[in-house]
Design goal:
heterodimer, A: mainly alpha, ABC transporter involved in vitamin B12 uptake, BtuC, two-stranded antiparallel sheet, 12 helices, 2 strands, B: Rossmann fold, 6-stranded mixed beta sheet, 3-stranded antiparallel beta sheet, 9 strands, binds adenosine-5'-triphosphate, binds magnesium ion
């Protein structure tokens, strides 16, 4: 059962990240996932201080709002200070991360925040907290949360597909037709924030970035159709999770590490194959 | 002039501290083909963007049909400069042209069969129907340009602002686009076109805006396409300008007597 829990958890993270990551890759801002996963620290701290508990919900809300705050600051630096977007991302999240570290090291001695876990996650221990679902069927709490977020993400992207698509492809044209691109930016960023926050607790920041960028990049190499890219990215995310898990078992290494390595390996293989082909359409035809 | 279709008042746009356009005032007439010309970096794209609300002016304002742009947005189509888009985006020609219908139906409704007909017609007009399923990364520069035009046509507007529709297209495509523009003018549409080629300016445009960060001249082509104004716009003595002004003197372009 433990195998199943771990694989299911990894797959749910993979799907959430693949969908959000496909939009981020096309907007050339995938590192925002990295930024959010670090910038959540002050939010977690304040949620802990205010609620006095380390239970999931307040922490989750604190983390997610601090993630969204990070995207607002990044957007502000980019728009108002006319800073390049990668520079704004770097400046904003290191600042928020540093504030978080200072707050926690000064006032949060007994706060249940482990920096190792922030970076590398604890996928192996996901089944420590089980919640009953129906009868004898249990799911890890983390998996359950990821499942709910996955449903939210899929519904939200289906609902807002056109808006996300047009503002990603051609923001200036979108403005010219009266579309509020700011709304769609923060709509996407809320999804990314939610995904990152619930994901990095189980798989760690590094695997979140690997999932956000790797499977969408693989899918991008294989298709010229954005909807297919979304589906393929999910499929590759799932494939990498399963292969990575058994590789980790075989070699007795960290699951998150093995999955990241598999993502990198598959990307390289697909890249070598596609770059020897004439065009994308030859690989996946209608 | 009757009610001007576009007017700019004291329009200034700064990027940081650097002005891209400085204190521009003009009025443009309806139903004509209007050229916007000036050297690279003279603020032509910025001017179109500020009319379309893509950049916010630092000072001044523009009006379209004597109204706020938001009141008449459905009548106005914008064709961005081709280089501003990532043409490796995983999308087909059809996907791009259908964007011209998004704001008509709203973002949350499916496109109707009427929309599909309009998209198809627009592609036909620019001779790209055969490429509808083609992925946009596999288009030539001229084909990309025609896809952008088709998207604008699909919007079914009255006023078209086009940023360099002739950049990087071959002669055949250029002629095709010119014919299309003439047809649109015949239907009473107004076309505002950023253009670089001084040789074709006189035959393409009824009206010209010449700018170099500041406005140099705005008026009927026959009035403003002069040696002096071109030199003021492009600075110094360009050989092209002197050649063209010589042609002007020698050949007496028919347009001067219109
Ligand atoms: N987003 C931006 N940020 C900073 N400066 C910009 C930006 N866009 C344009 N500029 C600057 O503003 C000036 C005007 O640019 P604009 O693109 O409007 O010129 P243009 O006349 O369209 O030039 P081209 O003929 O090369 O298309 C240029 O000096 C350019 O460097
Ligand atoms: Mg330009």
């Amino acid at each position: 059962m433990n195998d199943f829990y771990i694989i299911l958890t990894a797959c749910l993270v993979a799907i959430n990240c693949a969908i959000m990551g496909s939009f981020l890759v096309m907007r050339k801002m995938v590192m925002i996932g990295d930024a959010i996963s670090h910038a959540v620290l002050p939010g977690i701290f304040f949620a802990y201080i205010i609620s006095g508990s380390t239970s999931s919900l307040p922490i989750l809300i604190g983390a997610a709002s601090s993630g969204i705050l990070a995207t607002i600051i990044i957007e502000w630096f980019t728009q108002k200070a006319r800073l390049q977007s990668d520079a704004s991302i770097g400046v904003s999240y290191t600042l928020l991360f540093a504030i978080g570290i200072i707050l926690i090291s000064k006032f949060g001695a007994n706060a249940d925040i482990d920096q190792q876990c922030v970076l590398y996650g604890e996928l192996e221990y996901v089944s420590l907290w089980l919640e009953p679902i129906i009868g004898d069927f249990y799911l890890p709490r983390q998996t359950l949360i990821l499942g709910v977020v996955c449903i939210i993400i899929v519904l939200a992207v289906t609902w807002g597909y056109k808006g996300l698509f047009i503002t990603t492809f051609d923001p200036n044209f979108s403005i010219s037709t009266g579309i509020a691109i700011g709304f769609w930016h923060y709509f996407l960023m809320s999804g990314v924030s939610l995904t990152t926050v619930v994901s990095f607790e189980s798989v760690g920041a590094i695997l979140v970035i690997a999932f956000l960028s790797g499977p969408p990049a693989i899918a991008y190499l294989l298709t010229g159709n954005f909807k297919k890219m979304l589906v393929l990215a999910c499929a590759f995310g799932i494939l990498c999770s399963i292969v990575g898990y058994y590789l980790a078992k075989l070699l007795d290494v960290s699951v998150a590490g093995a999955i990241s390595a598999v993502i990198g390996a598959i990307f390289t293989i697909v890249f070598v194959i596609t770059s020897s082909q004439k065009s994308k359409i030859d690989v996946i035809s209608d | 002039m009757a009610i001007p279709i576009i007017e700019a008042h004291n329009l200034t746009v700064l990027y940081g501290r650097k002005p891209a356009i400085w204190n521009i005032d003009f009025k443009l007439p309806e139903g004509q083909v209007i050229g916007i010309m000036g050297p690279n970096g003279s603020g032509k794209s910025t001017l179109l963007k500020s009319i379309m609300g893509v950049v916010t002016p630092t000072t001044g304002y523009t009006k379209v049909y004597d109204q706020e742009l938001n009141q008449v947005r459905h009548k106005v189509s914008y064709v961005p400069q081709r280089q501003e888009i990532d043409w490796d985006f995983p999308a087909s020609v059809w996907d791009i042209v259908s964007m011209g219908r998004f704001h008509v139906r709203g973002l949350f409704k499916r496109l109707t069969s009427e929309d599909n007909d309009i998209i198809q017609e627009s592609l036909e007009k620019v001779n790209m129907l055969g490429f509808a399923k083609r992925q946009i990364s596999q288009l030539s520069g001229g084909q990309q340009q025609r896809v952008f035009l088709a998207r604008a046509i699909a919007q079914q507007g009255e006023l078209f602002l086009m940023d360099e529709p002739f950049a990087g297209v071959d002669i055949a495509t250029e002629e095709m686009i010119v014919d299309l523009l003439k047809e649109m003018k015949g239907q009473g549409k107004t076309l505002v076109i950023v253009h670089h080629d001084l040789h074709t300016a006189q035959s393409y445009f009824d009206h010209l805006v010449l700018m170099n960060t500041r406005l140099v001249a705005c008026g009927k082509t026959s009035d403003v396409f002069t040696d002096q104004i071109l030199t003021d716009t492009y600075g110094g003595k360009l050989t092209t300008i002197s050649k063209i002004s010589q042609e002007l003197e020698n050949k007496e372009f028919p347009i001067r007597h219109q």
